[in-house]
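Lab notebook, entry 259. We have the chain sequence and a SMILES string for magnesium ion, and the next step in the workflow is to get a structural model of the bound complex before anyone spends time on docking refinements. Request logged below.

Task: model protein plus magnesium ion, output structure tokens.
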Amino acid sequence: MTEYEAVILDIDGTIIRGDDLLSGAAAGIRTLEEAGCSRLLFSNNPTRGSAHYREKLAPYGLEVDPETVLTSATVTAQYLADTHPDERVFLVGSPRLETILEEAAIELTTAPDAADVVLGSFDREFSYSDLTDALQALEDGSAFYGTDPDTTIPVDGGTIPGSGAILAAMEAAAGREPDAILGKPSAVAAEAANARLEAPPERTLVVGDRLDTDIALGKQAGMETAVVLTGVTERADLEGGSPEPDHVLESLGDIETIL
Ligand SMILES: [Mg+2]
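Result returned:
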């Protein structure tokens, strides 16, 4: 029997890498199901909604209810809908994030002067012109948010700049920090996860491959944490790494050892 009622699982680097299922992931998920833990998948990917992961994991025999998936995009959309209703959002972000925001009935504007809120995120088409417009919108005193803090994204053959790098450019130009960055490890993200799981934080386990997002989310929410070594963190990084996870697992397949 396990003391955990619920588990929050990161996706990239924990369950999958690129399009491949990580070794041990399916077994680990089965173990958690057999232990009776309710499960939430939580990705900081700001370009995907919940349904994407049902489709992505189905070929591996993993049944995923989109209601049990959060991404930094869905958390951001929900947060803006709740806290800035009827306000216009100037987005520096991907077309897919734009669609997710529109599906949440958020009104977008491309006119900097018309913006009440500026949202920065991963954008492959990010340009000097976007930065100029964002600066103009931020100078007007708009609220300023980011989807996620990830400065880089691991891809096949290297890394590419992520939302955090674009937010840093916006922050430098405007001379102000975002009011909040809404994905993991923010308090908003922890609350969104808690609301889905309906388990007390002290009986919730967070498993992920990044110390600064996954483990930090668990730490700040009072949850138990486990890092897996199947993603960006290697064993050598743990020496003096911060924040310190409660458990270290070679892969999700070893989850049984801490239940
Ligand atoms: Mg990850």
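Notes for the group: The mean pLDDT is 96. Worth checking against the assay data. Residues 73-181 form a domain with the Rossmann fold fold (CATH 3.40.50.1000).
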